[in-house]
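Figure 2 data, in text form.
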Amino acid sequence: MEYPLKGGASVDDAYFEKLSDAAAEGDYPGEPGEWLVRPQGRPKLCNEDPVSVTFKMPRSQYDALSKKAKSLNESRSEYLRRAVARDLGAIA
């Protein structure tokens, strides 16, 4: 199988086998690079401590909410956060 890479090149299973065999013998090609350490967990949504909000709604609203969020390729939470921010922004 062939796997396309970001720069336009591609590698295949034979390439991975070759790397695997070399690594098994302690041979790692290339030069060691700098380790990049990223923060663990989800990215922050805001600069404040988040709180959870839970409430009930009629099933028909829940279904409509789910459908709308999906049509925008968002989670329900993302959609609701935007809707609340839009509404509160209009008040403030």
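Caption note: The mean pLDDT is 88.
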